[in-house]
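Let us practice reading a record.
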Amino acid sequence: MRRDGRLSGILHVLLHMAQRDAPVTSEVLAKAMQTNPVVIRRILAGLREHGLVRSGKGHGGGWSLARDLSAITLLDVYAALGRPPLFAIGNRDAAPACLVEQAVNGALDRVLDDAEALLLARLGEITLATLSADFHARLAARGGVHRSEIPDVA
């Protein structure tokens, strides 16, 4: 089963955006993420509706963060993406007549509900500032050299 990489991808984009002093166009972001600008606009529009990013039109326009990195959690971004399924496993039949399958479903449902609650709580504890600090620590350990996938636009 194919994994949904939107959360990872958009976190990547947001952290690169945070490194810039100017808005970034959908075209530049799409090129960096090797996707179509329409995909970037669609995802960022959802984040804009949740107050995470803003967009500007015209010369000098593009996408920028709407809140401080410390005010955006991974849970905020996950919610803005529409809360995609966290797990690929699930019940074979949601309403089985078989008592054995009901027992299996009950056990799996409890475990998955517990795991989801734990994962969502942890996503709510991690901010983009936390990720940015990790990036900067890694950058310093490397000697301060980083080639951004999102180029500066003059």
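A brief commentary: The first strand starts at residue 53 and ends at 56.
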